């Protein structure tokens, strides 16, 4: 079957304007423009305008056994939306609406292609008393992919990872069937994932290999009238993290509790200059920089919260600055720290990201720090305490020049060394792993667990057309 015949069938579904195999268009979808992962190949790109059109596209892909990859904006780390085995890329950008906001139950029903900028702009205009948790990725990043891939939001302390923000889903399976999971499968309300068996996990963490999410309900949170944003400074992560851990357990209305090291806080623009600080500890810079955000309903409550935060930080010798000191806190939304990554002049970045026990985060940082310094790279570290301090995300970033093959090679070596070293910490589990790390987890997982994953993938995607080559559910 030629591309022309397949495109003719696809044009019947979406119209001639929204499907193409022209190289000047398909080229835009063949790689992840940020990371150093290998490029893929997009044979056909199609832009559906409804869930029903997505169904028909998947049915055609099944008919001809053509790989199919869901795509929102292509701003992803780890090349999750890279078409590794060619085929059809389904660009969801036309599915970009907020369909409903339920202020009583505090959720928004959104389409699969909406971005954080689109969602936040809608809430600010029509529902200014509510807010969504948002990522530190660009405004053009997709909301639903962030949730499905365990993204970290600025409300992570109260809500957990993006997966825990999901109430319900509408999904086109790899078979072409359309399903709903959560309360929306039994009523018109999308308030939660109860009471039937929780099937949302069939699509969370699967990297688009079990279906295409066309709608989702995500939790919203009240925007309270009193808020304070502190920036905390400690000499080392060893000194600063215990303070944050104590804050996470103190019940102080903290909605975001974040730690970055000095390397992360430097503008990456400076990485091309001679004056960049490689080793902050040696250079006597504060290597533990924290963001502490608290909110309250009443002024009296707010004052008490802030006093307690200041007391705990003083006990731990963490210096605090806030707006009253002339230092503006991190204000939502959207909160974007993308200036910390320089993608000009061939600049790129990649990370080893893990969820882990709070017991292991300091060890994780020190391991990754030493490996980065060994190769002359500034350590860049990011960590957020999640869900009231029940667990933590730990992420080590490495920048590189995409025009320099040796720099790319060195970056991959650093990432692999960090990955191998931190696996000795029992509480560390990587998320969105690159392909070279997928096999490690398959070997580490119980064989019966791997067999179950493969069986589920086969049921939901019988012809293995959904984002093949990612390694999820593949032998």
Q: How would you characterize this protein structure?
A:
The strands form four sheets. This protein has an eight-stranded antiparallel sheet. Strands 5-6-10-8-9 form a five-stranded antiparallel sheet. Strands 1-2-4-3 form a four-stranded mixed sheet, covered by helices on one side. Strand 5 (98-102) and strand 6 form a beta hairpin. Helix 1 (3-14) runs antiparallel to helix 3 (51-64) and helix 7 (237-248) packs antiparallel against helix 9. It is 29% helix and 23% strand. The relative contact order is 0.13. It is of the alpha+beta class. The radius of gyration is 23 Å and the shape is globular. The protein is built from 13 helices and 19 strands. The chain has helices spanning 3-14, 23-26, 51-64, 116-126, 143-148, 156-159, 237-248, 262-265, 299-315, 361-374, 405-422, 435-444, 447-460, and strands at residues 19-20, 44-46, 68-71, 88-91, 98-102, 107-111, 130-131, 166-173, 178-181, 211-219, 221-222, 226-234, 254-260, 288-296, 319-321, 347-356, 380-386, 391-401, 428-430. The chain has three domains: 3-91, Uridine Diphospho-n-acetylenolpyruvylglucosamine Reductase, domain 2, CATH 3.30.43.10; 98-222, Uridine Diphospho-n-acetylenolpyruvylglucosamine Reductase, domain 3 (2-Layer Sandwich), CATH 3.30.465; 226-430, FAD-linked oxidase, cap domain/gating helix (Vanillyl-alcohol Oxidase, Chain A, domain 3, 3-Layer(aba) Sandwich), CATH 3.40.462.40.
